Amino acid sequence: MTTRTDTIFDHLDREWDQLLARGELDEALERWRARDDRLQQFSSVGALLALLTDREAEPQWQSDALLALLSAARTDRLAARLVLQRFIPPLKLIACWRQPLPQADWIAQIVSAAFEVIVTYPVEHRRVRVAANIVWDVRKRMYAALAEHRRWQAELLVDDREVVEAAPDPADSVIASQLLRWAGRRSRVAPDVADVIVLTRLAGYSLEEAATIAGVPSARLRQRRWRGEQRIRALLAPTCPDGRG
Fold first, then answer.
1. Mean pLDDT within 127-140
2. Which domains does the chain have, with CATH numbers?
3. S-S: 199 plus which of 62, 127, 168, 205, CB 3.0-4.6 Å?
């Protein structure tokens, strides 16, 4: 029987349990509450994390709470650790990408990228859709890491017929993304629906992952995406000379 090797995710789970048991996070929350009114309503870290992971919660409430934590995370390791805990599920989805690196190394890079995104997040300039921004920033960094690995492999295998599979590059979808958003505006598709179409059709997100980021049920998001795509198709459909579409 094969024994599974622990990953950083396993270590993070154990560390989180220890932090909760020692009460360090709740003590830290008292400090954060004293400095930021956006956290006043939370009496425990459990209550705060529950809001951040609640799909039915008001998105801006979640963004405001995240912004407060991200502000503290610049100098407070525990604040950064709490934000990281909220994003473990989407990070595990990134860990499932098909890629050529050893899995333990890949996960270590993901967690490192996420931590860097968290402690450098521009809280002054990106104040809405904060959770989606963080996930997208981590994904971009991992796309870049795979692209760099591909270039490195190509240099090593320059005389070898074996080709390392190219990692998806978000830059390849920039023009298509711009055209899709333009079509969405012309057909009066809501901006958040246009963003979902871009994320799921161009950027490689699954519908379930997009639903988690948006905080809405996937069935509802699927229906909204379908209606938006129908409007865009109607706008872009060629018109016959006699006026019939």
1. 92
2. 13-135 (no CATH), 169-236 (1.10.10)
3. 205
